[in-house]
Amino acid sequence: MLKWLLDKISGREAGPPSPQAEAEHSAPPVRTPDPTGIHWREADQERFLREAVLPRLNEAVLRDLTALLASAPGRLHPLDAAVLYAMAGAFEPTRLMETGSGGSTLVLNKARHDFHLPGELISTDPGPAIDLTEIVDAHAAKGAASLHPEDFAIFQRGEFLLLHLFSGDGEAAAGLRHVVEELLPELPEGVLLGVLGWPEEAGQADSWPEEARHALAVLLNLLRAHPPLDVYTSPSATKRVLSGPAGVLADTAPSGTRPGLLLVRLSALSSV
């Protein structure tokens, strides 16, 4: 399943791509809707993926990640799983928290153990699809709409928050809007923010409920008005660097999924 990336890491030849694959690989990256005023730092993203992510992936790690994704419900793309895992090793965050759970929780837990991270793994999810008992240090059985500023007051510089962008019903969309509007601006400068489900293709979010589309617009405005300190990766950069010219890794993903992880380090947003 992960043959192309394994070949890339080990230096083995992956074979010449087809003319169609070469054309796809050379095509310009798809941009995030309405990126005006946001500096995405594409060159820095590619550098991070090549220098911080690829060296932390080997055959055993990719085999384990594949098994974890196969055991978990949900639609986490294997490329995003690889980046999440390597990110934890690169930055060694002292706390990991996500608004949701699933394959990403399993990946972060593996990274925490493999890289000997001392911090907590926390999940807020009213109806987790996996048993979190032996995985997370703390589980808040409530949806995003029930989160309060004190839930985010624990964050310090260098910690990591994984926000699950809309992937559910209207209630989930309302919770997402609440987090983006009320809680993200209170995060301190230097927090690592991961956003799963980031739409980069035109029209990708058109079918989302109004609350979710509004939350996306607010998040874009936050990044535009008070840009992050760094943009480490976005779905288009991840796909360019980690998937082969023939898209072998992408073909192993569940049907209908695509890379969707945005990773940034925030500057202070409270003044926005």
Write the layout of secondary structure elements.
Elements: H1 3-10, H2 19-26, H3 42-53, H4 59-71, H5 78-91, E1 95-99, H6 103-114, E2 120-124, E3 138-140, H7 149-152, E4 160-164, H8 170-183, E5 192-196, H9 210-225, E6 230-233, H10 235-242, H11 248-251, E7 261-265
Parallel strand pairs: 1-2, 1-4, 2-3, 4-5
Antiparallel strand pairs: 5-7, 6-7
Helix pairs in contact: 3-10, 5-6, 8-9
- The name of the CATH superfamily reads Vaccinia Virus protein VP39
Shape: globular
- Which blocks of ≥5 consecutive residues have pLDDT under 50? 1-6, 13-33, 245-250
State the distance separating the first and last CA atoms: 44 Å
Tell me what the CATH architecture is.
3-Layer(aba) Sandwich
CATH class value: Alpha Beta
> How big a fraction of the residues is strand?
5-15%
Strand order of the largest sheet: 3-2-1-4-5-7-6
Number of domains: 1
Order of helices and strands: HHHHHEHEEHEHEHEHHE
Specify the helix fraction band: 40-55%
Overall pLDDT score: 78
**Total helical elements:** 11
Q: Structural class given helices, strands, pairing?
A: alpha/beta
Say how many strands there are: 7
* CATH overall fold name: Rossmann fold
Main pleated-sheet profile:
7 strands, mixed
